[in-house]
Write a structure and sequence with these properties.
Helix content: under 10%
CATH topology of the largest domain: Jelly Rolls
GO molecular function: hydrolase activity
Organism: Rubripirellula obstinata
Pfam families: 3keto-disac_hyd (PF06439)
CATH architecture of the largest domain: Sandwich
Low-confidence stretches: 1-85
Mean pLDDT: 84
Distance between the termini: 38 Å
CATH class of the largest domain: Mainly Beta
Number of helices: 3
Strand content: 35-45%
Number of strands: 33
Protein name: 3-keto-alpha-glucoside-1,2-lyase/3-keto-2-hydroxy-glucal hydratase domain-containing protein
């Protein structure tokens, strides 16, 4: 289908007032509809309304370098004074972050790493895919997320995660009290109440750095330092393990556990920086085998699905579909695929009506860019949602193996290609059993698409894990 042509050279995301969503189109306050026009979801400041066009990927300037814009919104900046007699006020101001296609493409992960399911939660240049709760001065500089002041605040991922391995680096001041929240709502009731918190506070004797706050004290011997430290957290069902600088410091098993939730970076006191934030979902199982025993073919449709001697699924020629025998509601899916030409097209459909002809959401597989500009997908782009949201970047490889990580949770969905997040969509349409006509959160089947006679796509893996059990 023909698309409106645009020529942006930069990708944009904004960080506005506290409790303001940072990603395009996944906000409890401003929501994106299928017509790509913003609509108010509830009452909000005029400043937020003015900033909303930034969510819809209409860059206002051409630039090949990263820069930060403090937006003139016509409203007063919010000033937070913790102790006006001892320190200057902390300014929490609307901000916008931009990154070039070159910068985002350079942030892609190596193929072998992405094939294991690893993704970047922070692309190093923008806060795409993050939300703020609480007025603190979160910022991005030198490929680092930093906060130095303000009130207690969480910077959270827009998508929830259930079982995962999380790796990051952090650096904090000697009096810092911070933490990494796991399976958390955007505004939790408290650590251990509806989420887990891994403490980052060297001077907290009850629960020092590496502890599961309120649950398990760590054996960490860390002392305040100006150096960067590595933190690794594994959350698998009710088990949590924490390592600092490669050394295990805490193990904890919860009797009940919490459902899937966001990952949050906390500001409570002092300053802290985060970088190289990566995640790998756990529990993925490959659904492909030589007999396609977990899938249903449609032999009367044109085109063909087969498995070659290497165990790869081959979709070739004609409009066809391959349907999963299982249904999935909330899930994580990892696909490793290859298409020899950029103009070739396929897709992964989900929450489909069983037995229908691809009546579901479609996560697009298309590596074609208009005019060779990776920021302008020719047909929604790999990881974009067909007729819902463009990918912000065409990050897939031509005639080589690419990876797609697709996450769906309720009305929110997002995708990463080669480890970089390219979409972040919230479906606020009225409910409908057919996702082509409205929002659907109930379970449905998966379908792999054979798009047209030119389709020639290979899939090395289609691994899935349910996250709503």
């Amino acid at each position: 289908m023909k698309r409106n042509k645009r020529s942006p050279l930069v990708s944009r995301t904004s960080a506005t007032k506290w409790r303001q969503h940072l990603a395009w189109g996944v906000s409890p306050r401003i929501q994106v509809h299928s017509d790509a026009k913003p609509r108010r979801a509830d009452s909000e400041s005029a400043a937020t309304a003015l900033l909303s066009p930034l969510r819809h990927r209409e860059p206002l300037a051409a630039c090949l370098v990263l820069f930060v814009i403090i937006l003139a919104t016509g409203c007063k900046q919010q000033t937070i004074t913790e102790n006006p007699t001892a320190k200057p006020p902390v300014i929490v101001a609307p901000q916008s972050y931009e990154a070039s296609a070159e910068q985002l493409l350079a942030a892609r992960l190596p193929a072998e790493v992405a094939a294991e399911g690893w993704i970047r939660l922070f692309d190093g240049h923008t806060l795409y895919g993050w939300e703020i709760a609480g007025p603190a001065n979160w910022s991005v500089k030198d490929q680092t997320i930093a906060v130095t002041g303000g009130e207690e605040s969480l910077l959270c991922t827009s998508m929830p995660w259930l079982n995962f391995e999380l790796r990051l680096q952090y650096r904090c001041g000697k009096d810092t009290d911070s933490g990494v929240f796991l399976r958390t709502p955007l505004e939790p009731d408290g650590s251990g109440v509806d989420c887990f918190e891994i403490n980052l506070a060297d001077n907290a004797p009850a629960f020092p750095t590496g502890s599961v706050v309120g649950k398990q004290k760590s054996q960490s011997k860390t002392v305040p330092t100006d150096d960067w430290r590595s933190l690794e957290i594994v959350v698998n069902e009710n088990d949590i393990t924490v390592s600092i600088e490669g050394e295990g410091v805490c193990e904890y098993t919860d009797e009940i556990g919490f459902p899937a939730g966001r990952i949050g970076l906390q500001h409570k006191k002092g300053s802290i920086e985060f970088r190289e934030i990566r995640l790998r979902p756990l529990g993925l199982e490959n659904t492909l085998d030589k007999k396609l025993s977990q899938w249903t073919k449609y032999p009367k449709m044109p085109g063909e699905f087969s498995v070659n001697d290497q165990g790869w699924l081959h979709a070739k020629g004609g409009r066809n579909q391959l349907e999963s025998k299982q249904s999935y509601g909330n899930f994580v899916l990892l696909a490793e695929f290859k298409m020899p030409k950029p103009e070739m097209n396929s897709g992964i459909f989900f929450r489909c009506i069983e037995g229908s002809e691809m009546m579901g959401y479609e996560c697009q597989l298309s590596n074609q860019a208009e005019g060779g500009n990776p920021l302008v997908p020719a047909d929604y782009g790999t990881g974009g949602f067909f007729k819902r949201q463009n990918a912000r970047l065409v990050a897939g490889l031509i005639d080589d193996w690419s990876t797609l990580l697709l996450v769906a949770d309720g009305p929110t969905m997002a995708a990463w290609v080669q480890g970089i997040q390219v979409s972040n969509f919230y479906d606020d349409r009225p409910p409908n059993e057919n996702p082509r006509k409205g929002s659907k959160v109930e379970s449905g089947t998966l379908m792999i698409q054979g798009h047209d006679p030119e389709t020639d796509a290979y899939f090395k893996q289609l691994s899935v894990a349910k996250t709503d059990d």
